[in-house]
Amino acid sequence: MDRLTATRVFVEVVERGSQTAAADALEMSRAMVSRYLGELETWVGARLLHRTTRKLSLTGAGEQVLVQCRDMLAVADALQGVGRSDEGAPRGTLRIACSQSLAQAWLVHALNDFPRLYPQVSVDLLVSSQSVNLVEARIDLALRITNQLDPNLVARQLAVCRSVVCATPAYLAKRGTPQRPEDLAQHNCLSYAYFGRSIWEFTRDGEPHAVAVSGNLSANESMVLLEAVLADAGLSLQPRYSVAAHLRSGALVQVLPDYEPQQLGIHALYGTRRQMPLAVRTLLDFLIERLADKPEWDL
Q: For labelling, which of 31, 125, 156, 245 has a CA lying 20 to 30 Å from the CA of 182?
């Protein structure tokens, strides 16, 4: 068996979602694709794919093998490129996952500059606040704002995300301005599904304060809550980068400024440090450098 070809067939089947599509892309028969998959499974000693009439899905062993197969192909492609005059130039399409708020406030602007520096790299951006399986979704790099990291992934902290409690002047004129975290119980607190849905945590002079909050709206996307806050609907705990311009303009007012909401890390997540593709490593270094120029994110 040509194990490198079998590896490429397996990766192609996973990325294209079917043996037929992989056969077309590789210009081989479907029977040959099926044979390579079978021989690869025999070689690794495990079933790699669940095969049904509707879709293909990876087994647990398949998820692990897929990462290793991609590493093998990256090494093979790098060896094939030795001696080319443009060997050091990153190339290819990168799939990046990011929340809407971070993508809209910062990432999309950074990515506008990246292709001008590296014209042979294109980006496919998946915008979602929900954590995705990097292998199944074919994600090269995920940017997540969290303190709960997947131990199976490599994480590199890029920055600190600080939050503020904010509301419009009109809402506060009608309902009053909270002076202590406990006062939030008397307010309509619009909550984010993935962080602080029912408990908001603060510190003041090193002392923790955790308060229960409730409201008539929760959402899995913080930008939706921001629009509701701007419409005088209530209070919200928002990333500083999302509301900085509104605070400067006076459209929003920071509430409880003496109490620091819980901080979160902004992390880059990826599957492995070994044989990281040049394009991924280049993009990661680029994002780190761009965030280093954003000191206001750590205020």
A: 245
What span, in angstroms and rounded, lies between the C-alpha atoms of 145 and 54? 34
Could you tell me which residues are beta bridge partners of residue 208?
A: 203
Q: Are 255 and 166 in contact (CB under 8 A)?
A: yes
> What is the average per-residue pLDDT within 72-78?
78
Architecture of domain 163-262: 3-Layer(aba) Sandwich (3.40)
Within 88-239, residue ranges assigned H as helices are 100-102, 108-117, 169-175, 222-230
Choosing among 3.10.290.10, 1.20.58.220, 2.40.160.10, 1.10.10.10, the CATH entry for 3-80 is: 1.10.10.10
CA proximity to 16, closest of 172, 167, 180, 138 = 138
How many angstroms separate the first and last alpha carbons of the chain? 58
Show me where the domains of the chain are located.
Answer: 3-80, 92-161+265-298, 163-262
Query: Residue 192 pLDDT more than 60?
Result: yes
At 116, list the tokens.
């001008």
pLDDT for the residue numbered 83:
44
The C-alpha atoms of residue 15 and residue 58 are separated, in whole angstroms, by 11
Q: Report which of 227, 229, 222 is spatially closest to residue 101, judged by C-alpha positions.
A: 222
pLDDT in tens, 256-285: 999 999 999 999 998 766 557 889 989 999
Whole-number average pLDDT of the chain? 87
Does the pTM exceed 0.85? no
Q: What is the DSSP code (8-state) at residue 195?
A: B
